[in-house]
Amino acid sequence: MGMAGLGILVFFILVAVFAPLLASHCDLSPTCHPNNPQYAAPSLKFPFGTDNLGRSVLSLTIWGTRISMIVGLAATALTMLLGPAIGLFAGYYGAWRETVLMRVTDWFLVIPFLPLAIVLAALLGPSLITIIFVIGVTSWPSTARVIRAQVLSVKTRAYVERSRALGSSDWHLMSRHILPNVAPLIFANTILTVAVAILSETTLSFLGLGDPLSISWGTILEFAFNKGAAISGQWWWIVPPGVAIVLVVLAFTMVGYALDDILNPRLRAR
User: Fold this and answer.
1) Is the pTM here over 0.85, yes or no?
2) What pLDDT, in 10s, does the model give residues 37-54?
3) CB count, 10 Å around CB of 218?
4) DSSP letter string over 189-251?
5) What is the pLDDT of residue 32?
6) Which residues contact 63 (CB under 8 A, 6 or more apart)?
7) Given a cut of 60, is residue 166 above it in pLDDT?
8) Cα dihedral sign for 158, 101, 118, 219?
9) Cα 203 to the chain's mean position, in Å?
10) In this predicted model, what pLDDT tens digit does every residue of 194-210 receive, in sequence order?
11) In the Cβ-directed half-sphere of 117, how many Cα atoms lie within 13 Å?
């Protein structure tokens, strides 16, 4: 399962990296090919058909891969900075620090993600930076909870207690003994978070809160539904980005669960 997911991810990463070689950036502008037919069905010239402006849906999907992957990875990076840091700090120090941090985490957990993300995106304005920030600051609580629980277990182990008795500082204990033991969990959770981030970007872009000047899979679907592609029978405008989203999210999920099986000793023994 993990190798199948990895194969899918490698394919989409190569598409994102080599997008300029696979499709001209000019294809994204309707003025570059004014004679292209509108709403053309898939053919040899246009394998995925064209949209309402005569743009190739294949070119849109290829370039949308780059934006969707960038947003997903960048938002995940922000999530992985916040979640593990808060979980590590709360789990290690405990007392009132843990109480304050966990109540803030609970506040983010009980508020539904989509309404909070919509409000933040609407207040900050549509842009890629806004989407990355919104997804990042709303996706860290579950990671923080998982890391805190693991830290609570690790910090009571004998080798940590011996190191503390020998006079090791808090920074030494966290960086040399606790963090290396929770790092596999952070890594596996990162892979799963990328899938959630890409799906969140698609959702926000589909609702019109994405960057209107950037083409992502979510904005392609937004344009298609706004022009009535779903009820007009123009399936070729909807299916390619939709299938790409499903495959990438499925691939990240498959790799994430495979890594969890590898890195979790209990699952590996089973």
Assistant:
1) no
2) 888 888 888 888 888 888
3) 29
4) HHHHHHHHHHHHHHHHHHTT-S-TTS--HHHHHHHHHHTTHHHHT-GGGTHHHHHHHHHHHHH
5) 79
6) 19, 23, 25, 27, 28, 215
7) yes
8) negative
9) 12
10) 888 888 888 888 888 87
11) 26
DSSP 162-204: HHHHTT--HHHIIIIIIHHHHHHHHHHHHHHHHHHHHHHHHHH
Q: Report the chain's C-alpha Rg in angstroms.
A: 22
Q: What's at 43, amino acid-wise? A: S
Amino acid at 214: S
* 97 contacts 148 by C-beta, under 8 angstroms: no
Q: Which residues contact 69 (CB under 8 A, 6 or more apart)?
A: 12, 13, 16, 198, 248
pLDDT value, residue 264: 64
